[in-house]
Amino acid sequence: HVAIKLVVMGTQEAKIIEFMKKVTSQTDVDSFEGVVPVLDVLHYDENYLFFVTPRWTHYEPNTRYDVVDQVLEFVHCMLKGLSFLHENNIVHKDIARHNILMNYLAADDYPYERDYCFRESLRFQCLIRYGIFDFNLSIKLPPFVKSSTYRLPIDYAFEGPRSEPFDCLHGELDYRPFAYDVACLGILFYEEFADIIPLAPLLAPLIDKMVTLDIDRRFTASQALEFFLRLRSEMSEEELKKRIPRDRPDVTAGWDEFRRWDSLPCGFIQRWAAYREPRPSLPRRLLRAFCRHHWGWNTVHYIRLILRWVHGSVFFWRPSPSTLLLPHDAH
């Protein structure tokens, strides 16, 4: 089975699809890059192209996992996929559950119980993979643009996920989209697996370093992947095969309340204390409470805009073109 999508030529999405056709592979699960592979690109005319991918199933939120290692395989695929995109100077801009697929497809008339058993069998054989897809909001930057300094106007942040990181909660004027991608994925990990953190403590420092307010200290996608692989390699077979309860408890604490360390062993907390994100300061919490109101966010935003204009007028400062390179300029 395959899926076929129509894309307008000359867009960022078309550019990325053409690139994906050259570099993605579907040969085997071990060479999987963490993104849904593009099998072929069919040029219809000078205005449109079709691209072909395997027909996979949408990822289901709160999927039933049996053991810890199955959860970590999902985390691994997502980190691998985001690292692959960022290493190729592609910012996704819409990291969310609805843009994740599983390399599995059930027949429409297949009974649910048989479908579930078959899917679980694939998981136990370590054959299920999860891939990032959908590049309609994505941007591929030229090689000379550094992802660590690249910024976009803040309006672009609101095109993507609704679970917004700290980066856009305080009336900001612009943001760093590569770091924003990482934070969105960290939030997704927490929302999916908050109740599993006591069984897989490595998720606590990983998530904290992916969502930290201090963007200069935030993991890049490749750093997050490296950290994850390091801690996963230290886990014993017994820890990886720990059973996950069928009735998973509801976690009421939000990702930004920083309570994911509460039930972890003291030794683990001490070892990774430097990775633990502190609660925001009182002034920061007050600013965030003010900006939760639409009028509050706009007030802070326009104050920042005025201050930037004053700073530019007095010190003749302007952002460099590469810093605020817009998508239509990224060719």
TrEMBL record:
The superkingdom of the source organism is Eukaryota
Which taxonomic lineage is given here? Eukaryota, Fungi, Dikarya, Basidiomycota, Agaricomycotina
This one is known as: Protein kinase domain-containing protein
Gene Ontology MF: a single term: protein kinase activity
Residues in coiled coil: none
Q: Which residues cross the membrane?
A: none
Q: Tell me any Pfam family this protein matches.
A: PK_Tyr_Ser-Thr
Q: Pinpoint the Protein kinase domain residues.
A: 1-259
